[in-house]
Design brief:
two-stranded antiparallel ribbon; mainly alpha; 490 residues
Length: 490
């Protein structure tokens, strides 16, 4: 190797090399961009607005990654010239520090055999700059590039996991379409009086468990998520409770189609990487210290959260069964449950979506970190850990992915509709636009009346109530319970 070849600059590089590399990079970038563009056009043509918005969210994440990449590249030399005392590099290492020879005082990270050590010598001019000052660079060029790759891998794995979960979960939920079709064909002219205990929903959920048997009820909910998380009786009863509460004037309401629209709309929220998730990444990178095995212990976080969410959702259904079984001995016609926010954590069903988002990201982070270490440092790297720590992490990751897809996500889709409010996806897209437009026009008319002094005190109470309704409609997230006359008008 010729002297200085490793530091060959662009001005000394053959033009054909520059042209070939740029052509390949531009070709790959344009291909990906066109594929995303055509996928977006396809989703718009199929009137899949929520999925189209999710695709736009993915594009935003790719843009964010590009910006992060640009910052890391632009400030590369600046970071290298940030010098710190060498003694600070002896603490909180991800791998056990190996003895240094007298001729390698500038070592920052090095890989040898199965171990990893910090190498300061590969830092180029930044390393020389700090060496002359008796210090070491804050981060080597090699470590900066590896961090660069890790962020990219994390984003790709997270999006892939989210898409996989939604596809598998959606496939499970589409199987319920058969139940919806049978309900639509059913003629409900008869209204026989039946004992509550004879209903399949009560038989499966109540099982004679008294309300004071809290532990038994929670245990039953915990194990129920592993087999038949949502049965036909669950679907039929919860659907009837939703229709009776929110759209009594439309008994043939397509509840299944509504759930699918809600699921697609929520997908765009899950597929993104929010700021608090980036905080989690930074905290993990900080605590990934040799001997702590943080990468192993965090694998249990998504599993524990997933089991807690699944148990809670199953328990909500059980609570609905308890309410009916304890209040009524016999019921005329179909069994009807009453949706309420009181059954959810802090009376907010939205918390479940936040936890699912966190679960998918943490699981993706664990798998992404594993593959990044595998292809960057090798399977025998000290940062990878022992086989006894690796295998459980991978097994837990697979369990979380499967359980979330086939059990927790379907449970989320139907149980979170048992809140006091309904989501805007209850209406078709053109109706949603009309409602929001009506809300804005009504607000303008109210402002005009106030400015002209036509808002009399006798109408003050009704105007305040209308104002609250307008604010909820304009949120375009959830709609409050409407009066019967207004519901029919919509």
């Amino acid at each position: 190797m010729m002297a200085g070849e490793e530091d060959l600059k662009l001005e000394a590089t053959p033009t054909w090399v520059i042209a070939v590399v740029c052509s390949v990079i531009v070709a790959i970038s344009l291909t990906v961009e066109r594929l995303i563009h055509y996928l977006g056009k396809y989703l718009k043509r199929k009137n899949q607005k929520p999925l189209f918005e999710a695709l736009q969210k993915v594009k935003e994440e790719l843009m964010l990654l590009g910006f992060i990449s640009l910052l890391l590249t632009v400030f590369q030399r600046t970071i290298q010239k940030m010098c710190i005392p060498e003694s600070l590099t002896h603490h909180m290492l991800p791998c056990k520090r190996e003895p240094e020879s007298s001729s390698s005082t500038t070592t920052h990270y090095s890989l040898s055999g199965g171990g990893m050590r910090r190498l300061l010598a590969g830092g180029g001019s930044g390393s020389d700059y700090c060496t002359r000052k008796g210090k070491v660079p804050l981060l080597s060029v090699e470590a900066l590039h590896e961090l660069h790759i890790f962020i990219f891998v994390l984003a790709i794995v997270h999006v892939t996991f989210c898409v996989t979960t939604m596809i598998l979960g959606g496939f499970k939920i589409r199987q319920w379409k058969v139940w919806e079709d049978k309900i639509a064909e059913k003629n409900n002219d008869t209204a026989d009086v039946t004992h509550v205990g004879e209903h399949d929903f009560i038989k499966e959920r109540f099982k004679g468990i008294k309300k004071h048997s809290v532990v038994v009820g929670w245990l039953h909910s915990f194990f129920k998520q592993f087999y038949g998380s949502v049965t036909k009786s669950d679907y039929v009863t919860l659907r009837l409770g939703f229709v009776t509460t929110h759209c009594r004037g439309s008994p043939k309401f397509d509840f299944h189609k509504f759930m699918m629209r809600v699921l697609e709309a929520d997908f765009r929220k899950v597929v993104g990487i929010s700021w608090y998730l980036w905080v989690f990444v930074v905290v993990f990178l900080l605590l990934n210290v040799n001997g702590w095995h943080v990468y192993f212990w965090i694998a249990f976080i998504p599993l524990i959260l997933l089991l807690a969410v699944g148990t809670k959702l199953e328990h909500v259904i059980t609570q609905l069964a308890h309410e009916v079984a304890e209040k009524h001995a016999a019921i005329e016609g179909d069994l009807v449950v009453k949706p309420s926010d009181d059954h959810f954590w802090f009376h907010r069903p939205q918390i479940v979506l936040f936890l699912i988002h966190l679960i998918l990201f943490q699981n993706a982070f664990e798998i992404a970190f594993f593959f990044w270490i595998l292809f960057t440092y090798g399977f025998n790297s000290c940062i990878m850990g022992q086989v006894g720590f690796i295998i459980p992490r991978l097994v837990i990751g697979v369990i979380v992915q499967i359980l979330c897809s086939y059990s927790t996500l379907p449970l989320y889709a139907i149980v979170t509709q048992m809140g006091s409010s309904f989501k805007k996806e209850m209406f078709e897209e053109h109706v949603q636009v009309s409602l929001v437009g009506w809300a804005k026009n009504a607000r303008k008319r109210k402002g005009l009346r106030v400015s002209t002094g036509q808002n009399g005190s006798e109408h003050g109470v009704s105007e305040d109530v209308n104002e609250i309704q307008l604010q909820k409609v304009e949120k375009q997230d959830e709609f409050p319970l409407m009066e019967e006359g207004n519901r029919h008008a919509v």
